[in-house]
Amino acid sequence: MSGERHNPFMNLPANEIRKVFANQFNTLPLAVTRAPGRVELLGNHTDYNEGLVLSCALDRYIYAAAGPTGKNNTFEFFSTFNSSLVVVADAVRQQGSAWVNYPLGVYTILREKGFPAAPFALAITGTIPMGAGLSSSAALEIASGLALSTVYGFSVDPVEMAHICRDAESTFCGTNCGLLDQFSVLFGKKEHALFIDFRSLEHQTVPIQYQDMLLAITTSGVTHSLSDSAYNGRRKECAEAAKFFSKRDSSVVSLRDVSSTMLESAKGELDDVVYKRAAHVIGENERVRRGVEFLKEGKLTEFGTLLYQSHESSRVNFENSCPELDTLVDYAASLEGVYGSRLTGGGWGGATLTLIHRDAVDEFRKKIRAGYKEKTGREASVHFAAVTDGAGVIHSKSE
Ligand code: GLA
């Protein structure tokens, strides 16, 4: 007996990717999935320090269509981003088409955990601007993981799925990232921010008091490479800071256990650079707590101020900004109707997040692009995004 299930949010790109899959692989896919991008509102580099994050999923997506290849150990990939077919003879890390490492990595970790995934064909398309810091990589991982579980008929607990996709990114793609991206992509909720505790993995949704506020993502055109040793280097410095404090107080496990008073008392004893890294993480945890309260109370001006403070701490303490991101934030701050702005995600390029009054949108787009171009010679693009639901299966066909 064969049955088809359709989800009401079936939309254009999902239909498009079905057709692309059918043209490319001469058969219909057994699953079509959709995973959104994410933005971190506050809580920069806190996730791998067992800290706090406020994030949300955005209405830019990766769509994936998948089916079995039916061939031993052969995997086939097609992306509408570059219209090229990649055939892989074994699930090993690829040097050439790097993007296939994300789905291949997810497949490999699923198998290691005992899930009955088998070789697959996968076609993808999407609307997430690449390399902009919106985590197209996590969206691709989650879209692939959900597609594989649908095609091969097994279910994975969402928290486990987040871990599997994170592990895929770290072992197959070289970035030892935290869980923020995968978690936000899976658990996002329309018109809500996600308040996540990365120690307990408990999360709550907080309504975003939109009033007349919009969320703008401005890309800097500087491509960040998270695999850069910079990200992994910051992780080590944070671990070093935690170790310093745990020697003083054995109850300290991670930077989550270090208060700003404890940090202050270590000034002069702790290496200067390590001190600054810890100051960023500890400050971010505090800003997330305050940010949640401001959001609940609809205090957007106060919330926006936290965004500026977060960026300043990135610039000075964590040193994960760059002149282009600073220029974007400074420009945003000089414009009418802007509540706050900061870099979002790993840093060293990518995008800024800006909260802005609806009436100021046109002026913002025009002025920030012109000002940025004049100062840096680069093109910025501005995307106004809505907060959306997490990833899901759009279409599945079971035989
Ligand atoms: C990247 C990583 C996340 C997180 C952020 C910074 O997006 O993938 O795990 O560490 O940077 O907050």
Helix-strand pattern, N to C? EHEEEEHEHHHEEEHHHHHEEHEEE
Largest sheet: 10 strands, mixed
Using only CA atoms, what is the Rg? Answer: 21 Å
Structural class: alpha+beta
Helicity level? 40-55%
Q: Which consecutive residue ranges, at least 5 long each, have pLDDT under 50?
A: 1-10
* Average residue-wise pLDDT: 93
Please give the number of β-strands.
Answer: 14
Strand content: 15-25%
Multimeric state = single chain
The ligands bound in this entry are:
alpha-D-galactopyranose
Helix segment tally: 11
N-to-C terminal Cα separation, in Å? 6 Å
Task: Give a written overview of the molecule.
- The strands form two sheets. Strands 1, 2, 3, 4, 5, 6, 7, 8, 13 and 14 form a ten-stranded mixed beta sheet that branches. The protein has a four-stranded antiparallel beta sheet with strand order 10-11-9-12.
- By secondary structure, the protein is an alpha+beta fold.
- The protein is globular, with a radius of gyration of 21 Å.
- It has eleven helices and 14 strands.
- Strand 10 and strand 11 (351-357) form a beta hairpin.
- The protein binds alpha-D-galactopyranose (GLA).
- The site of alpha-D-galactopyranose has 12 residues, from helix 5.
- Alpha-D-galactopyranose (GLA) is lined by residues 40, 44-45, 47-48, 135, 177-178, 180-181, 345-346.
